[in-house]
Amino acid sequence: MATLGSPLRTLRGLLRELRHVSGRAYRDTAAYRHILAAFRAHRVTSEKLCRAQQELHFQAATYLCLLRSVRQHQALHREYHGRGERSPEEVAGLVGFRLPRQPGGRAEAAPCRPLLGTK
Amino acid sequence: MPAAPVVQMGCLSPACFVLSSSVIKPWWESFQHHLGEGQCQNVDDGWKLADSMPSSAPALSLFPLWGSLLFLSACSSLIPQDFYSDSPGGFEINLDHRKLKTPQAKLFTVPSEALAIAVATEWDSQKDTIKFYTMHLTTLCNTALDNPTQRNKVQLIRAAVKFLETDTLCYRVEEPAALAELQKKEWDPIVAWAEKRYNVAIGSSTSIMGPNISASTRDTFISHLASYNMWALQGIEYVITQLKSLILSMGLIDRHITVEKAVLLSRLEEEYQIQRWGNVEWAHDYDLCELRARAAAGTLFVHLCSESSTVKHKLLQD
């Protein structure tokens, strides 16, 4: 069988990941209720190895791995790959211009003002 | 019924920025609103809402991002459908009171409640924009429902077993000696376990042609995989493609190894090189997290689609 560690650790990790997903209201989510109900239902009080408990623990550990790695992947993406495009203001600022401020007007129609000039 | 302006996903009109207190209603009200809608449905359609709805809608919250055009209301709920006609039952996902559909516009129905909850959580975790590349379970369900490659069960199994000829665990190097030793130490136990469990002979090879897989081995795996239903098979084939190894995927499905260990074994050579030459976070860790996410999603999908103890409705069969 896979070496999984203690179920309590898995459960705590899962709750932490759910908190990352939902924020303050994580206790109202369906996932929270389902996980707690499943853990409670498969709690083993005798000494015998329970196969259903092992199966549930493996599923819980897999789900924890999924949530954790998705979060880490997103964090890495944001940090290294997620810069995206520059906004039009930034592009204009690269060559020293500012976009005109015209309510309802298009920026291309009006000429750009130089950044360092007088208003 | 309060005529509150319900925020729709992906709506680009400036009217969406209006944030009035009437829009943020408590989640149970949104449920009752939906119940009112549902009860008007024609019962002759062959389905009706279940009597006991799971209280599952999280708090309706809005993230108004001034200056951004796309924002998402993080409220997904799941409604069980009790089908009393010949079509099997399942669970649907509702996003802001609209039913989730697959890319081919079919209704998104999953056989297992736990899977539906996991998909709803995936949708809930999308904040400003929807990043489909992070929603692995949703993608897997869409693939299973749509079957875009139009493969039947036999073709799926054949594609899965074909990977055995190019299984990562069977391709060994001769040099560097440390890597060869590491491969022997880490991969041999798993291959031995697979051989023992399935009563087959797999072996490993250092040549470019790969191991010689006998027909009986192939048939054993074909008949073993035939015992899974279509949904689980899509998941299995996905995991095999991601890990590049049939043996590791079988180890995962049979709960012999954890996802982290399977991913580590699949990337054994890369880990060896990382130990030797150093880790590049934006490449190595990025790939590691992505592979772990995909393998975990695939394994979870297979287990949730093939278990029969907790499913209350009939499994969707193809």
Automatic annotation (TrEMBL), chain A:
Q: Which organism is it from?
A: Meleagris gallopavo (Wild turkey)
Please give the biological process terms from Gene Ontology that the record holds. Answer: apoptotic mitochondrial changes; dopaminergic neuron differentiation; mitochondrial proton-transporting ATP synthase complex assembly; motor behavior; negative regulation of lipid catabolic process; regulation of type B pancreatic cell proliferation; response to toxic substance
Q: Which family is this protein grouped under?
A: Belongs to the FMC1 family.
Q: Give the CC-aspect GO terms.
A: mitochondrion
Question: Taxonomic lineage per UniProt?
Answer: Eukaryota, Metazoa, Chordata, Craniata, Vertebrata
**Role description:** Plays a role in the assembly/stability of the mitochondrial membrane ATP synthase (F(1)F(0) ATP synthase or Complex V).
Q: What is this protein called?
A: Protein FMC1 homolog
Q: Which InterPro entries match?
A: FMC1_homologue
Q: Per the database entry, which stretches of residues form a coiled coil?
A: none
Q: Which domain of life is it from?
A: Eukaryota
UniProtKB/TrEMBL annotation, chain B:
Cellular localization per UniProt: Mitochondrion inner membrane
- Record has Chaperone as a keyword: yes
Q: Which UniProt keywords apply?
A: Chaperone, Membrane, Mitochondrion, Mitochondrion inner membrane, Transit peptide
What InterPro entries does the entry give? ATP12_ATP_synth-F1-assembly, ATP12_ATP_synth-F1-assembly_N, ATP12_ortho_dom_sf
Instruction: Specify whether Transit peptide is a keyword of the entry.
Output: yes
Q: How does it sit in the membrane?
A: Peripheral membrane protein
| Pfam families linked | ATP12 (PF07542)
Highest taxon, organism lineage: Eukaryota
| Entry GO terms, CC | mitochondrial inner membrane
Give the GO biological process terms: mitochondrial proton-transporting ATP synthase complex assembly
Q: What does this protein do?
A: Plays a role in the assembly of the F1 component of the mitochondrial ATP synthase (ATPase).
Give the family, as the similarity comment puts it: Belongs to the ATP12 family.
Quaternary structure (record): Interacts with ATP5F1B; involved in the assembly of the F1 component of the mitochondrial ATP synthase (ATPase). Interacts with FMC1.
Per its record, how is this protein called by name? ATP synthase mitochondrial F1 complex assembly factor 2
Organism whose genome encodes this protein? Meleagris gallopavo
